[in-house]
Amino acid sequence: MLPLLITTVAMILAGVLIFISMKDREANLAVNYYNAGVSYLQIGEVDKAIIQFQKALEKNRVLSAAHYGLGLAYASKEKYQEAIPELEFALKQRQTNPVIYYNLGSTYLYARDYDRAQAVFERALALKPRIKEIYFNLGWILKEKGDLAGAKENFAKALELDSQYQKARKYLGVLEEMEKEKKKAELLEVLKHFDEKDTEFMIQLSSDQKPGSHRTISI
């Protein structure tokens, strides 16, 4: 699965870097704590980042950027249940930002809440339909749900956007093997209940044969 986007680029894309002056002292402190949290997060000091984001929210409970940063920090420590409400809060304030959708969807995915993850990713694609990672994650979700055709379609779309996207290529191959195994299992199940008087089955079985192939049935 894919990592959350917690790089500098992701933070900028999410519109959460704050370098503005505020007259209100508490608001100023909140921004300072937030910026410190971003700095810690960028160098992998996640525990310190969490402390700074929490301090920012103590000063300003509605600072969506701090909720977003805290959500990313929790998610990077695999504390998905703690991360989800923070990311949801940030999304309510920035409902047109596909990066926040992506990170929230990824967190739902890691928490194995596939239905919510799928819904969030689909909304992200409605905003920005050319993010290959979202198609990959949707493919993964549908694979886990047993929808191999849907999974294959999404992996293929990811590969269309980036022909060098090896993860998508790999799982397309995996799905092809899964489909082959599924067909074999279905055929074996049919053969268990084979009736030599069932001419319709015999015709179907014959039509399934590839030219030059040979199959025998022992009775």
Quick recap of the structure?
The protein has 219 residues and is mostly helical. Helices cover 72% and strands 0% of the residues.
Highlighted features:
single chain, 219 residues, mainly alpha, Serine Threonine Protein Phosphatase 5, Tetratricopeptide repeat, 0% strand
Topology (elements, then pairings):
Blueprint: H1 8-13, H2 25-42, H3 46-59, H4 64-76, H5 80-93, H6 98-110, H7 114-127, H8 132-145, H9 148-161, H10 166-192, H11 199-208
Helix pairs in contact: 2-3, 2-4, 3-4, 4-5, 5-6, 6-7, 7-8, 8-9, 9-10
Can you tell me about this structure?
The chain is mainly alpha-helical and 219 residues long. It folds into two domains: 1-129, Tetratricopeptide repeat domain (Serine Threonine Protein Phosphatase 5, Tetratricopeptide repeat); 130-195, Serine Threonine Protein Phosphatase 5, Tetratricopeptide repeat. Helix content is 72%, strand content 0%. The chain contains eleven helices and no strands. Helix 2 (25-42) runs antiparallel to helix 3 (46-59), helix 4 packs antiparallel against helix 5 and helix 6 (98-110) runs antiparallel to helix 7. It starts with 7 loop residues before the first helix and ends in an 11-residue tail after the last helix. Residues 19-23 and 213-219 have low confidence and may be disordered.
